[in-house]
Each structure stands twice: as C-alpha cells, then as structure tokens.
Amino acid sequence: MSSDGCPVLIVLEFLKGFAKDKMCGKCLPCMLGTVRMIDVLERITNGKGEEEDIVLLDEISSYIVDTARCKLGKDAATFVKDSLSSSKNEYEEHIKDKYCAQKSCETIVSYQINSEKCTICGACKEVCPEDAIVGEKMVSYLSDNKPYYIKNKKCTKCGECLAVCEADAIEIV
Ligand code: SF4
Ligand code: SF4
Ligand code: SF4
User: Fold this and answer.
1) Ligand 3 pocket mutation, candidates 125, 133, 148, criterion most atoms within 8 A of CB
2) E strand or H helix at 90, and its extent?
3) Residue 113: CB within 6 Å of ligand 2?
4) CATH number reported for the structural domain that contains residue 53 in this entry
5) What range does the domain containing 77 cover?
6) Domain termination site, one of 64, 97, 130
7) What is this structure's pTM?
8) 62 alpha carbon to ligand 3 midpoint, in Å?
9) Which of 41, 83, 130, 153 is 20 to 30 Å from 101 by CA-CA measure?
10) Ligand 3 atom, smallest distance to 127 CA
11) Taking the C-alpha atoms of 100, 50, 85 and 78 in order, what is their torsion angle to the nearest 10 degrees?
C-alpha cells in the first residue's frame, strides 16, 4: 500500500514509523495514545472507520500534546492534529463514504455500474444479497426505465454482481 497523497495513510505510516524508530515508551500518554491512534487510523484506511473517530483522534492527539514528556511525542501528535484540521474532508470521505480519492487505501473501493455498458438486464440486482442495487429492467415500450446503480453504503463488495454481468458493466473503482 502506497501512501501517495492520501492524508490518512500518510499519518498512519508516519505514526507507525514514529512508534518503531523514535518512541521510547517512557511515558504512557505518548505510548498508549500512539498505539491507539494507529489502531483507529488502520480501521479508517480499511474502510471500517466510525463517525466518532475524527473526534477520538483529535482528543487523543490533544492529550498527548498536553501531557507527553518530550518534544518527539508532542511533535508526532501535533502532526496528527494538523492533518485532521487541514484534511477533514478526506477523513470524512474515508469514514462516511468509504472512499479514498487518491485510491491509496486499497481496501476502500467501490463497485459502480458503467451506464454506457449496462444493458439494463437486471441480473446484478437479482443476485445482490444486500439489496444494494437499484433500478428497473428494460421494458421496450417504456422510455423512462430507471438505470441501475449501486448504493455504496449497502454494498459489502462481495463480487456477486460482477460475476453475473455479461456486459462487463460493473467496475471496481
Ligand atoms: S513523549 Fe517522548 S519520552 Fe514520552 S514515550 Fe514519547 S518519545 Fe518517549
Ligand atoms: S448485470 Fe450488468 S448489464 Fe445487467 S443490469 Fe447489472 S450492470 Fe447492467
Ligand atoms: S458487490 Fe455484492 S453487495 Fe455489492 S452490489 Fe454487488 S452483489 Fe451487491
């Protein structure tokens, strides 16, 4: 996994490097707080972030800034705080939409239907175990058929729809 420009992944890799190479473990706020922040960031980059995670990261990093014994720990926590405030949108996209704009977080992907390829056959909707696909089959005498699309919040990325689509219209993005 490459961090590229994804701020969430950049902070995660920075903290992992800090924990491995610089953190001495002599004070609890820095040691426990850093480990906890790594856990939370891993969850977010794996598409399992929860709404309260941004506040949680902010609280932990603020606590470390206030209580850590040395500048190393305070600076590492400040890096997290700065990222949270400068890239709040990106954190929210990861958590709420399970979306990584940089496509750096490999487990955050979404299934989408390419409307130009879709033949409106309905096979995907029939196999979707999560009821995540919306739309109506093509009826030749109707001009207002509802195109198929995938509700990402319901989609578990099981791949069933991909397997049945003969038009190759379902794409992982
Ligand atoms: S704040 Fe400094 S002293 Fe405390 S664990 Fe972190 S690196 Fe060590
Ligand atoms: S199976 Fe493929 S072609 Fe058929 S409705 Fe779904 S996306 Fe469209
Ligand atoms: S990947 Fe699975 S859950 Fe998501 S839309 Fe396709 S069939 Fe439904």
Assistant:
1) 133
2) helix 88-92
3) yes
4) 1.20.1440.230
5) 7-97
6) 97
7) 0.65
8) 40
9) 130
10) 7
11) -110
